Amino acid sequence: MASITIRNLDEDVKTGIRIRAVVNGRSMEEEVRVILREVVGREDMPHWGLGTAIHEQFGRFSGVELELPPRGRMLEPSRFD
Questions:
Q1: I need a labelling partner for 53 at 20 to 30 A (CA). Which of 67, 74, 75, 78 fits?
Q2: Distance between CA atoms of residues 24 and 16, nearest Å
Q3: Whole-number CA gyration radius for the chain
């Protein structure tokens, strides 16, 4: 199991977690674990990869055709003998 430390947590958030934990009969630590499990397991979370995310963000700029320069002669690789 991994552990994390959360610094600079607003006092209002901490109080809200404490109240929610008491209402649900859990420790604050267990309450935070439950909250994180619920959020990470939500159905509305995106189920796609980085490429799709980039396309979603910048796809509206597609359709730009760039003129590619012709390829020149390839250089000979360096020799180390």
A1: 67
A2: 12
A3: 26
Determine the Cα–Cα distance for residues 14 and 3; give it in Å rounded to an integer.
Answer: 18
Q: What is the pTM of this model?
A: 0.52
Above pLDDT 70, what percent of the chain?
94
Contact between residue 65 and residue 59 where contact means Cβ atoms under 8 Å apart: no
- For every residue of 4-38, DSSP letters joined together read ----S--HHHHHHHHHHHHHHT--HHHHHHHHHHH
Cα 40 from Cα 34, distance rounded (Å): 10
Tell me what the mean pLDDT of segment 10-19 comes to. Answer: 95
pLDDT at 68: 87
Residue 70 corresponds to which tokens in the numbers above? 């012709």
